[in-house]
Automatic annotation (TrEMBL):
UniProt protein name: Exodeoxyribonuclease 7 small subunit
Organism: Hippea maritima (strain ATCC 700847 / DSM 10411 / MH2)
Protein family per UniProt: Belongs to the XseB family.
Gene: xseB
GO molecular function: exodeoxyribonuclease VII activity
Annotated NCBIfam families: xseB
Catalytic activity: Exonucleolytic cleavage in either 5'- to 3'- or 3'- to 5'-direction to yield nucleoside 5'-phosphates
Keywords: Coiled coil, Cytoplasm, Exonuclease, Hydrolase, Nuclease
Entry-linked PANTHER family: EXODEOXYRIBONUCLEASE 7 SMALL SUBUNIT
Length: 72
């Protein structure tokens, strides 16, 4: 598929297009479906990034201890 940034840019384009009062129903539905797929893609990418982020917990015996990122 595309990168997170490309997907986000496309979502912005879709949102602008859907705000247009002159959009046909079939086009709006198609754009909505595409947008929902992009939202799912972006959510997965963010989840993957979150899982990769580590915070340095402490340094013991010359070794760096890490723990999973936690957004508390």
């Amino acid at each position: 598929m595309k990168s997170f940034e490309e997907a986000l840019k496309r979502l912005e384009e879709i949102a602008k297009r859907l705000e247009n009062e002159n959009i046909m129903l079939d086009e709006a539905i198609g754009l909505y479906e595409e947008g929902m797929k992009l939202v799912e893609f972006c959510s997965k990418k963010l989840e993957e990034a979150e899982n990769r982020i580590k915070t340095i917990k402490s340094i013991e015996n010359g070794k760096i201890q890490t723990e999973d990122f936690n957004d508390e």
